[in-house]
């Protein structure tokens, strides 16, 4: 029997935790080429991902989810469009303690918001670092005032799972929103 | 103008009246909610397009409305027809009307509700009653919203509620009480439930029949992934 394959995109600026998230959620991780950072970013992170991260989550015998992580550096932005095509949704990770990451993330977020017609969930990472922005400030910084932002640490498996679950819930809601549900009368407190 | 009147159970004090507020907010009512207590005190709260106004009568009334269970109370929701050019509203003209978007149907952040809720304190006995009431609700879904827009000062607890709901397939509020970390007090837990319930962010889980009816192939796939992720 042919397998269904669907795609989830994990994106965001440099050093946000994309590779880590994909590692936790995938059944197998096929690609992740970390190399020594050579440009101006080297002072922030010793190793970085080139090309793309790619993992597969085997859901059951007839369904796989492909998780694509875009490289975080702006010079790879030509890949954003290609990778976002046909995705179920996008997890957007951003280092909430870094103004540089937020500025960079704003361009990326606006790109995905405008070009990719899929739900996006934002994960605010590096919450344990000094200078981590409040979620409201982060939302303003990204130009994402109406977006759902979830604080998370991708190094924690449960946090990585939560982001994927939140994204899937967004997908369901976007599919179900066409009909306004009537309030249920028996949903009453005692 | 239409009027709905609800008589609540006379035998036992309850928080059923929160359902009235929930309906009024969700259906974007304009008019007022009248609450008559057993002491014959009348509480009146003014609403515009589902948003509670910030006049002192509404704010004071809302505080009592949220704080105390009720017994033998009557509620009436007067609903005025509203169009975009002429907001028909029979409340005090001095009211400070807070509504986003030039009388549009777009929901404004429910800042009056959150502001009052921030300052609410329940007696232990009432807290237990609220906990039991919420625990008895059927399985629910929790909607994530950017809570920081609402002026609610405990977004962490709401986030905990949301995350717990994601991880449990048949999530009930009893599970939330069981799994909530100990550093979140019972009052904090109950507050987010009152907030979520009144704003219709906590909804009964769609029935299997309804889901089946709506289920596209894509939704089927998403649900299978959801279940898999929960198992990891």
Would you kindly provide a written description of the structure presented here, covering whatever features stand out?
The complex is a heterodimer of chains A (190) and B (232). Chain A is of the alpha/beta class and 190 residues long. In chain A, 32% of the residues lie in helices and 28% in strands. Chain A is built from five helices and seven strands; from the N terminus they run E-H-E-E-E-H-E-H-E-H-E-H. Chain A has helices spanning 18-25, 78-84, 99-115, 135-142, 157-176; strands spanning 4-11, 28-36, 47-60, 63-69, 89-95, 120-125, 149-151. Chain A starts with a strand and ends in a 14-residue tail after the last helix. Chain B has nine helices and seven strands. In chain B, strands 1-5-2-3-4 form a five-stranded antiparallel sheet. In chain B, strands 6-7 form a two-stranded antiparallel sheet. Residues 1-5 and 81-106 of chain B have low confidence and may be disordered. Classes of the chains: A alpha/beta (190), B alpha+beta (232). The interface between A and B is large, with 44 and 48 residues.
Concise overview:
By secondary structure, chain A is of the alpha/beta class. Helix content of chain A is 32%, strand content 28%.
What is the fold's blueprint, element by element?
The complex is a heterodimer of chains A (190) and B (232).
Chain A: E1 4-11, H1 18-25, E2 28-36, E3 47-60, E4 63-69, H2 78-84, E5 89-95, H3 99-115, E6 120-125, H4 135-142, E7 149-151, H5 157-176
Parallel strand pairs in A: 1-4, 1-5, 5-6, 6-7
Antiparallel strand pairs in A: 2-3, 3-4
Helix pairs in contact in A: 1-5
Chain B: E1 2-7, H1 17-26, E2 31-36, E3 42-48, E4 51-52, H2 56-67, E5 74-79, H3 111-119, H4 124-135, E6 140-142, H5 155-167, H6 173-179, H7 186-198, E7 202-204, H8 208-214, H9 217-231
Antiparallel strand pairs in B: 1-5, 2-3, 2-5, 3-4, 6-7
Helix pairs in contact in B: 2-3, 4-6, 4-7
């Amino acid at each position: 029997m042919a397998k269904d394959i669907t795609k989830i995109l994990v994106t965001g600026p440099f050093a946000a935790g994309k590779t880590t998230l994909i590692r936790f959620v995938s059944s197998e991780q096929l690609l992740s080429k970390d190399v020594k950072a050579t440009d101006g970013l080297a002072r922030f992170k010793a190793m970085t991902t080139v090309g793309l991260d790619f993992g597969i989550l085997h859901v059951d015998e007839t369904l796989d989810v492909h998780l694509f992580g875009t490289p975080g550096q702006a010079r790879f932005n030509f890949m954003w469009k290609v990778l976002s095509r046909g995705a179920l949704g996008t997890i957007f990770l951003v280092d909430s303690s870094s103004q540089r990451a937020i500025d960079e993330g704003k361009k990326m977020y606006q790109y995905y918001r405008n070009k990719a017609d899929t739900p996006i969930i934002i994960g605010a990472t590096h919450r344990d670092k000094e200078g981590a922005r409040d979620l409201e400030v982060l939302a303003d910084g990204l130009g994402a005032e109406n977006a759902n932002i979830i604080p998370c640490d991708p190094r924690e498996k449960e946090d990585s799972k939560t982001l994927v679950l939140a994204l899937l819930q967004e997908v369901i809601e976007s599919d179900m929103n066409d009909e306004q549900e009537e309030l249920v009368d028996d949903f009453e407190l005692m | 103008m239409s009027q709905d009147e609800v008589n609540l159970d006379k035998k036992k004090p309850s928080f059923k009246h929160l359902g009235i507020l929930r309906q009024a907010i969700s259906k974007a009512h304009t008019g007022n909610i009248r609450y008559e207590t057993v002491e014959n005190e009348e509480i009146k709260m003014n609403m515009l397009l589902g948003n509670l106004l910030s006049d002192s009568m509404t704010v004071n009334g809302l505080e009592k409305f949220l704080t105390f269970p009720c017994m033998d109370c009557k509620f009436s929701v007067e609903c005025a027809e509203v169009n975009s050019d002429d907001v028909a509203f029979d409340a005090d003209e001095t009211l400070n009307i807070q509504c986003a978007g030039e009388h549009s149907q777009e929901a404004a952040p429910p800042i009056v509700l959150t502001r009052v809720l921030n300052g609410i304190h329940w007696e232990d006995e009432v807290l237990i009653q609220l906990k039991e009431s919420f625990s008895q609700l059927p399985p629910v879904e929790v909607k994530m919203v950017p809570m920081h827009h609402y002026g609610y000062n405990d977004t962490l607890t709401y986030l905990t509620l949301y995350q717990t709901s994601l991880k449990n397939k048949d999530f009930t509020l009893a599970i939330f009480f069981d799994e909530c970390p100990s550093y979140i007090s019972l009052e904090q837990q109950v507050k987010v439930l009152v907030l979520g319930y009144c704003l219709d962010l906590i909804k009964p889980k769609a029935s299997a029949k309804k889901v089946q009816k709506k289920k596209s192939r894509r939704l089927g796939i998403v649900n299978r992934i959801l279940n898999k992720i929960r198992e990891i």
